[in-house]
Write a structure and sequence with these properties.
- Helix content is about 30%, strand content about 35%.
- By secondary structure, it is α+β, with helices and mostly antiparallel strands.
- Among the domains are: about 80 residues, conserved putative lor/sdh protein from methanococcus maripaludis s2 fold, CATH 2.40.420; about 90 residues, Elongation Factor Tu (Ef-tu), domain 3 (Beta Barrel), CATH 2.40.30.170; about 80 residues, Helix Hairpins (Orthogonal Bundle).
- The longest helix is centred in the N-terminal third of the chain and has 45 residues.
- It is elongated and about 130 Å long.
Length: about 425
């Protein structure tokens, strides 16, 4: 039997099976990559060719975004920024008064105060005043029981009367003895005796008068009186109290004139002189005063100099120990070019002071030289760089820069629209 055809068929089948297995393995390993590559190639071919033969616009790439951003930035750089300003954002250079000032603060204290104490031992018979009560000078504030003191005064008065009589009699005897001595009627020894008696009587009179004054002073001290016109600040005793000598009875103050003791830096002390005007604010009210004294020494701890200011307070509106702040006016210029303080600007390194001036319809950065800064008025003196009626930008209405176009909105005030740096 011939087996050749069977063997041949078997070998062909085995070879075909091996080929199919290898082909399947190849498709499993490289199939996805090839498929994706083919798909990408197919898509690239589809999008890369249009019927009109033109290439499509690239989308979603970093290079494309960068190129687009650069193009847009270049477009903006070629256009001029502008700003819209309201009436409250612009001020004109004007002439006015500026004052150089030095700040000072402290408590307003009564210019004169007193602690009233008892001068004698005794019982208070009556206290006539209370806290807050105004009193005149020499007004009786309280009275001690004084029967003993008054009796001593009456006794002293009687001693003075007797001593005056003795002194008068002794003086008359001495005069008579001198006349008799002149005519030789008495000896010189008798004259000397009468003259000595007259001198002794005169001395006794002087001693009696001294005791009388002492007794009168004691009686006077039984009545406690006000040393000046003022107001009772504290009453520390009551009727019927037995107080030893030296007991504190009252405190009183005179607030018609107040004094502020403040301090200023030593470097500014030479600018402050007695008589300079002072503007103060206390309890929301404005007051004026004067520099009365300046300390001649510097405090070594704070490196400051004490200054004393007086403030008239005739109506008593200000109370003692009120805290006040203010400025000592050291210099005044009456006809100066001024701009609002908010118009003044300084560059980053602090080497230039400038303003933004409106020239036509553009902003110009103008370097200026400044003088006195008036804090009270909120203005600054312009020494050089501007002229009267020039317009400058005040505050911070938006992003500013030289060469920016300016559009002014008419008379809308500070509450009106404010512009921002923008491109048209």
């Amino acid at each position: 039997m011939n087996t050749t055809p069977r063997v041949t068929a078997t070998l062909v089948a085995i070879a075909f099976a091996c080929a199919c297995t290898a082909d399947a393995a190849d498709r499993t390993t490289a199939g996805p990559s090839q498929k994706n590559t083919a798909s990408a190639a197919s898509q690239g071919q589809d999008v890369g060719s249009r019927k009109d033969g033109t290439a499509p616009r690239a989308r979603g790439t970093a290079a494309g975004d960068s190129a687009g951003g650069s193009a847009r930035g270049a477009g903006r750089a070629g256009r001029t920024a502008s700003i819209v300003l309201g009436a409250g954002d612009v001020a004109k250079v004007a002439r006015g008064t500026v004052e150089a000032t030095i700040s000072v603060s402290g408590d307003l204290r009564a210019l004169e105060s007193a602690t009233i104490r008892s001068r004698i031992d005794g019982i208070l018979e009556k206290v006539y005043v209370r806290e807050g009560q105004p009193v005149a000078a020499n007004a009786v504030l309280a009275k001690f029981e004084s029967s003993e003191q008054e009796a001593s005064l009456r006794s002293a008065d009687a001693d003075v009367a007797a001593a005056k009589s003795d002194a008068a009699t002794s003086a008359w005897n001495a005069d008579q003895s001198r006349e008799l001595f002149k005519v030789g009627a008495i000896a010189e020894r008798d004259l000397k005796v009468t003259e000595q008696a007259a001198d002794a009587a005169k001395a006794r009179l002087a001693a009696s008068e001294a005791r009388q004054r002492a007794a009168a002073n004691v009686v006077r001290d039984t009545r406690v009186t006000a040393p000046f016109a003022g107001t009772i600040e504290k009453r520390l005793v009551q009727d019927g109290e037995n107080t030893p000598r030296g007991t504190q009875l009252f405190t009183m103050v005179r607030t018609a004139t107040l004094e502020l003791a403040g301090s200023v830096p030593a470097k500014s002390a030479d600018d402050i002189k007695a008589g300079q005007a002072v503007r103060l604010t206390a309890d929301g009210r404005a007051f004026t005063g004067r520099v009365s004294r300046v300390s001649p020494t510097i405090d070594p701890a704070s490196r400051s100099v004490a200054v004393y200011l007086t403030v008239p307070n005739p109506s008593g509106v200000l109370k003692g120990n009120t805290f006040a702040t203010g400025q000592v006016v050291t210099r005044t210029i009456g006809d100066a070019l001024t701009v609002p303080s908010s118009a003044i600007r300084v560059n980053v390194d602090g080497t230039q002071v400038f303003v933004y001036k409106i020239q036509g319809d553009e902003l110009a950065m103008t370097v200026v030289k400044t003088g006195i800064a008036d804090e009270a008025r909120g203005t600054v003196q312009i020494v050089d760089g501007l002229r009267e009626l020039d317009q400058v930008v005040v505050g911070a209405p938006g992003t500013l820069g030289p060469g920016m176009k300016v559009q002014l909105i008419g008379n809308e005030g500070r509450g009106g629209r404010r512009g921002r740096g923008a491109t048209p």
